[in-house]
Amino acid sequence: MTELITGHPALASAALLLAAGIAAGLAGSIAGLASLFSYPALLAAGLPPVAANVTNTVALFSNTVGTAAGSRAELRGQRRRLMRLACVAALGGAIGAALLLGTPSSAFELAVPWLIALGSVLILVREPLRRLIAKRRPGGGTNGDPDGSALPGLPMTGAVLLVGLYGGYFGAAAGVLMLAVLSLSAAEPLPVTNAVKNIVTGAANVTAAVAYAFLAPVDWMAALTLGIGCLVGAWVGPAVVRRVPETPLRVAVALAGFGLAWSLWRDATAS
């Protein structure tokens, strides 16, 4: 994206990416929807779809840094859980990156809107679904779990692996899917689940970003500009989550997910 460093159109593109990065950082840290702003901005700045996808993944590394800095209170005491889940997600991200670099994406892109819509539904029905799963577990859902987990360990690990794979492959609204999975895995306040989601999703993203940095057509100037905005937005996002009531926030995340699913489905079927 050489136009970013030459002439007035370059300044306009840089301003667009910086503003989109701030919005993406906020949306990513709050709702897992960073790509709702960042990916279209990269396309509008002139990048072709594949370059925009991999550049977006690299730029969103700063989203993880920003949310980690802004969520220190929520992440206190979560080290063991984060290490375990981040390793699983990172493995998924590596597999997803390998798939993107080695296979056509057209068939997978048709499934993406449905996955995002499913994640949005799971976020909306989290509490009744948690109770239903817990009832079907041995011991009526208690099962000695100190955190009130609804999902047993192995299915939850598999779900995190698959969401990590999706995040490394395509990434749009991977945070919505991860939030849905983690919401079923522990009875805790939404800001804590959201903070864990940001780090775990970030692990998949970072793994894919490393692969793309060496093997894919990353536009580094665009990634840097977008990434600076993401860092600022992601730093502020956790403070917003602390102050917004949980139920309206959950509904807003789900509705935004439905909107993105509809937009991606329309684009996929039109192409």
Proportion of residues in helical segments: over 70%
Q: What is the domain tally?
A: 1
N-C termini distance: 25 Å
| Chain-averaged pLDDT | 81
Rg calc: 18 Å
Could you give a short account of the major beta sheet? Answer: none
Give the H and E element order. Answer: HHHHHHHHHHHHH
Instruction: Label the structural class.
Output: mainly alpha
Unreliable sequence segments: 2-8, 140-148
How many beta-strand runs? 0
Overall 3D shape: globular
> Beta-strand level of the residues, as a percent range?
under 5%
Count of individual helical segments:
13
Main location: membrane
Organism: Streptomyces olivaceiscleroticus
Pfam families: TauE
Subcellular location: Cell membrane
Walkthrough of the structure:
The chain has one domain. 80% of the residues lie in helices and 0% in strands. The protein has 13 helices and no strands. It has helices at 7-31, 35-44, 49-59, 61-70, 72-75, 79-102, 106-124, 126-136, 153-169, 174-183, 190-215, 220-243, 246-270.
